[in-house]
Amino acid sequence: MGDPRPQVGDRWPLVGRERQLSAITSTASGGVVLVGAAGVGKTRLAREVVARLKTDGRRTEWVAATRSMAAIPFGAVSHLLPPLNNDSRLSVLHAVAAHFTDSPVIAVDDAHLLDDASAAVVHHLAARQLAYLIVTVRAGEPCPDAVNALWKDGLTSRVGLAELPEDAVDQLLDHAFGSRLAPVSRRRLHRVSAGNPLLLREILLAGLDTGELRHRHGAWHWTGEVRATTRLADVVVGRLGSVADTVYAALEVVAGGEPVPVALLEQLVGGAAVATAERKGLVTTESAGRRLVARLSHPLYGEVIRSTMAASRARSVAGQLADAMTSTPMRRRDDALRVGTLQLQSGRTGDPRILLAAAKQAKDRFDHELAERLARSAHESGAGWAAEQLLAEVQLDRGRYDELTVPGSPGAGADDNDKVRWAITRADAMYWGQGKVAEAEQILDELDGDVADGSLVWILLFDSRCAEALALADKVLRSPSANPQALVWAASAGIPAAGFLGYQDRADEIYRFGTRVAAENELQVPWGPAQMGYGRCLSLLATGCLTEAWELADLEYQAAAAKEAIAPLGGWAGFRGAVAKARGELDVAAASFREVLALLPNYDTFRLAATCLAELAGARALAGDHRQAQRLLDRADSPTRLTSRLFQPWIELDRAWVFAASGEISKAAAHARETAEMARHNGLPTTEAFALYDVARLGEARSVYIRLSELATELTCDLGTTLADAACALVDNDFERLTHAADCFEHQGLWLHAAEAMVTTARLAHDAGAHTRATAATSRANNLMRLLPRARTPMLATTGLPAMLTSREREVALLAAQGQSSRRIAARLNLSVRTVDNYLGRAYAKLGVTSRTELGPLLSPRAPG
To answer: Which of 654, 621, 620, 661 is nearest to 637 (CA)?
Structure first.
């Protein structure tokens, strides 16, 4: 299916101007002068006012002033004038007074470009109240005196139009894309357009033309820099106006390194050029600590100037800036990153120490692509082992295990810190790159230190040895000599380890401690706060505390989107997807997982790509789309994708729901039961509990309720008790107990579980003759299911007519409704064809139908009432 092209036409809908429009159209006489920067929508608003007033039956005229027409007296208004025998200005004004007797509406666009004679006509119309005027003027441009007099003399009102607020820009983006624009791309378009609707439209058109704006994984993404098309460049050059070469050179220097210290800029291009650029409104200055720095006055100026600059000029500017900055003390923390980036852009051999420091800062700021380029450049410039080591660490952060090259030993003279870093990199390469657990453990065991132990906690966690991980984390956290890096690593992995074991209180305790350490040492451990958040969210997911998990994931996701920080954004998008899927918000889940795949196409950090694909498959399966779910699961199963023992049960539970979506309910239940055994063997009691309850959700509660009851006594979180109560209630047909379980599910944010429980409660209460309770349960089930419009699960189908069927009759009927033959159904369910036909015949009789085609509408797994 083709990707629908965004609706980016020549005219946007009018947004963000409702207040001004209402005020203008309610004015009885005179008119209005609209003043604003180029592209803010003055002409669009003027056209809307004209259209509104035209519906009242008034005659309307449009005057468009241009630079070329400005040389011709009366040129802009010539079409308004009656035939004249004398073209003196006084005669023209007398003729205008005699001609305009019906008080028309006259719009004058770009009135700052009017010739003096035309401006006099416009002023005369206002002064004699011969017409209602709508005049647009570009802010900051010189105007004819007659135009300025319109509002200065009180003949018209003056309305200033600022850039559009964010919510109005969102309306324009929604008009163009609907909900199909990736959030980080939306954030970037906000920033680059700065609320200017004309520039926003031109940016989008340029992005479509250059391919930087493209459709991937169900959404539109801006994938690179703004590359200026001829049309976009013309628009920006028009805004810049005519400037001297020296001034444009100043703009190029600012674009090449903004913000640029003003003293440095004046050193490179001269004070006069800087002053002229600032006076023309092309450059702004602001204080940054004790320095005055210069920026271009609009974010798009820099994008377009950089895009249109000749490659040789761009290299020259970068080199000049780098040389100028290296002549300063470079005391600011980001100076190394800025100079290193400029040296990289200059194409010259850079200072290896600066490049290495820059690569480290880029890594700390989560800009892995830049960090990798800087590290490579540092190595090429002679930074040696340190650059190789940093490059390997960056590749590990990106999950680029196939490209990873671990450097050789740092040498006998290396300090202990370098030896530890090297050993941890070797261990990570063994585990994450090759799946060799024992070899990785041996490397870290030989180090025998807190930092090595902190790193080992992560490997133990992902190897599903949560009890060992938690014990080792506790050891590090109690160590008086542990440094912040060791504490952060131990805490961030210990939190989810405790969660998977069901120790939510312990997870909370570690989280509070680790968060404090990370906050106090953010410069030393820049990833600390994010790692704490990831660990906390995973712990909440493991224990079914989805309300808190969603609040955390969504808050951090929005923060990362605002910063356009791609790596953290991808991580939090994955957590949003996992939480939304567990809640039953399947559209949100699918969009989030697709965003991860689009944001991080070449990343497989922590070997989570397969899990992400499987979770997306599970979301589609729960929505009833078994074909797409199977395709996604096949991708997750690719032999080139490694995964961890921690998340393998997640993948297998997703597989169970793909079976269920295809109608193989018995097979799905059996696979969920096998997954529960896998989780038990792997030491994951909360995962086992979820898997066992999935067996119950698939119609076989009797086979799992005893084990769930045992787990309820072992787990210290509420999850085990709630799942066990629900399973026991299903076995006993106890709608009172099931209602209580639904209350607990809803409180924890497990909305889909709660909806399923209330659907079943409604049926059980109805069957027991408790009609009032059944009605109340039906109402509550409907309210829950309105939150989950896409959910399609067997328990949601166990109401009304489908509830008259046994689980096997319903399974056979569902497969038949999909158009499958009796022979194929028999093969899938390991039954005889005669048995299938018997089940089908009984289903027909109970439902009052005679063919497969009549089954589909009756078996739709939706609303109970």
So the answer is: 654
**What are the residues whose beta carbons fall under 8 Å from the beta carbon of 519, sequence distance 6 or more?**
528, 529
- Nearest residue to 462 via CA among 325, 604, 628, 252: 604
> Domain with 425 in it: what CATH number?
1.25.40
Tokens for 495? Answer: 């939190």
Question: Please, what is the average pLDDT of the chain?
Answer: 91
- Quick one: pLDDT band at residue 864, thresholds 50, 70, 90? very low
Sheet containing strand 31-36, strands side by side: 60-64, 105-109, 132-138, 31-36, 157-161
Beta-bridged to residue 291, according to DSSP, are: 288
| Domain region containing 78 | 18-161
Whole-angstrom CA distances from 72 to 68, 87, 116, 463, 852 are: 8, 13, 9, 81, 80
Separation of alpha carbons 685 and 536, rounded Å: 18
Q: How many domains does the chain have?
A: 6
| Residues 655, 625 within the same domain | yes
Q: Do 473 and 325 belong together in one domain?
A: no
pLDDT at 431 over 90: yes
Q: Is the pLDDT of residue 578 over 60?
A: yes
Q: DSSP state, 642?
A: -
121-165 pLDDT per residue, tens: 999 999 999 999 999 999 888 999 999 999 999 999 999 999 999
Return the residue matching tokens 């004004």.
93
| Domain match, 576 and 725 both | yes
Judged against a pLDDT cut of 80, whether residue 274 lies above it is answered with yes
> Are residues 110 and 247 both part of a single domain?
no
Q: Tell me the pTM.
A: 0.84
For 71, the 3-state DSSP assignment is helix
CA atoms within 13 A on the CB side of 186: 24
